[in-house]
Design goal:
Elements (H helix, E strand, L loop, with lengths): L1 H19 L7 E4 L7 H14 L4 E5 L2 E4 L2 E12 L2 E10 L3
Antiparallel strand pairs: 1-5, 2-3, 3-4, 4-5
Length: about 100
């Protein structure tokens, strides 16, 4: 019984961590080469990266993007991977 509880707790933690890191259905997750503190520069880098992937992108301002006809809002997450800080950019669809 203790093994089942331990496995259940592990699965819940793993599920919560993956959602926190932006891995949800319809989210667009990017790991850019540089770190950005300026929203305008960050948005420009996101636009360039998505265009490299063949998507049609339009930055609408204030962290909002139009990607292939769908509206997204940009969120940034800072994570330490192996002691090295990594900036992950998550584009989350805007609910209509």
């Amino acid at each position: 019984m203790d093994i089942l509880i331990t496995i259940a707790i592990f699965i819940i933690i793993l599920f919560g961590f993956s959602r926190l890191m932006g891995y949800r259905n319809k989210n667009i997750t990017l790991e850019l080469d540089d770190r950005y503190t300026n929203l305008t520069e960050h948005a420009k880098a996101v636009t360039e990266e998505l265009e490299k992937e063949g998507k049609k992108v339009e930055y609408q301002g204030d962290g909002y993007f139009l990607v292939d006809g769908e509206q997204y809002v940009m969120h940034g997450r800072n994570v330490a991977m192996g002691g090295v800080p990594l900036q992950r950019t998550i584009l989350e669809p805007v609910e209509k």
